[in-house]
Amino acid sequence: MASIFTKIINREIPADIVYEDELVIALLDINPVNDGHTLVVPKEEYADFSSIPPELLGPFFERVQRIARGVTAGVRADGFNVLLNTGSAAGQEVMHVHAHIIPRFEGDGYEHWHGSGYDTEDEKKRTAERIRNALDA
Ligand code: AMP
Q1: pLDDT in tens, 79-137
Q2: The ligand 1 atom nearest the CA atom of 85
Q3: What is the pLDDT of residues 73-85, one digit of tens each?
Q4: What is the rounded distance in angstroms from the CA atom of residue 79 to the CA atom of residue 73?
Q5: Which single residue of 32, 79, 93, 103 could bond 37 by disulfide (Cβ 3.0 to 4.6 Å)?
Q6: Rounded (to 5) percent helix, strand, coil in the chain
Q7: Distance from the CA of 121 to the center of ligand 1, in angstroms?
Q8: Looking at ligand 1, which residue's alpha carbon is closest to its atom 12?
Q9: DSSP result, 30-45
Q10: Which residues surround ligand 1 with Cβ inside 6 Å?
Q11: Total-model pTM
Q12: Nearest ligand 1 atom, CA 28
């Protein structure tokens, strides 16, 4: 079944589209965290960040950067977060990859995640080793 974003791309359901080209569409999030919260969506329906073909990553992020500049200027933001929720455990609800551009304003009250650290230096080293091994595999 087509994703909600494919339906928007196909003009089957309405959206506030702020940018479109042959590769991506960008639209206002229907439930914005801040004014100007924008989603950048590849037109091809890849499920998540992990499944974007490597050759699309450069062009995709070039759009994300360009659109983020436009969003920031448009709503006069002081900064922005780019988020790619990947997998339901990470809060991904729409399984058609999209980058969130969330404009940030000084004093908007949002906090970053609080880190909790590692219990021991050993545990940290083991984690780093597991990741290195996975990357070598
Ligand atoms: P995620 O949790 O990363 O999958 O984010 C999905 C986002 O899509 C949420 O922030 C929703 O508010 C947004 N969203 C869902 N349906 C629509 C829609 N029809 N138009 C615009 N944004 C939408």
Answers
A1: 999 999 999 999 999 999 999 999 999 999 999 889 999 999 999 999 999 999 999 98
A2: 3
A3: 999 999 999 999 9
A4: 10
A5: 32
A6: 35, 20, 45
A7: 39
A8: 31
A9: SS-SSTT-EEEEESS-
A10: 4, 15, 27, 29-31, 39, 85, 91-94
A11: 0.96
A12: 21
Q: Which atom of ligand 1 is nearest to the CA of 91?
A: 2
Q: Among 8, 103, 78, 87, which residue's Cα sits nearest to residue 48?
A: 87
Residue the block writes with tokens 């999209």: 98
What does the alpha-carbon distance between residue 38 and residue 70 come to, in Å, rounded to a whole number?
A: 10
CB 38 within 8 Å of CB 81: no
Is 98 one of the catalytic residues? Answer: yes
Ligand 1: which of 13, 39, 64, 83 to mutate, judged by most atoms within 8 Å of the beta carbon? 39
Residue type, 120: T
Catalytic position from the list 98, 100, 112, 114: 98
Token digits of residue 82? 């780019």
Interval between CA 76 and ligand 1 midpoint (Å): 23
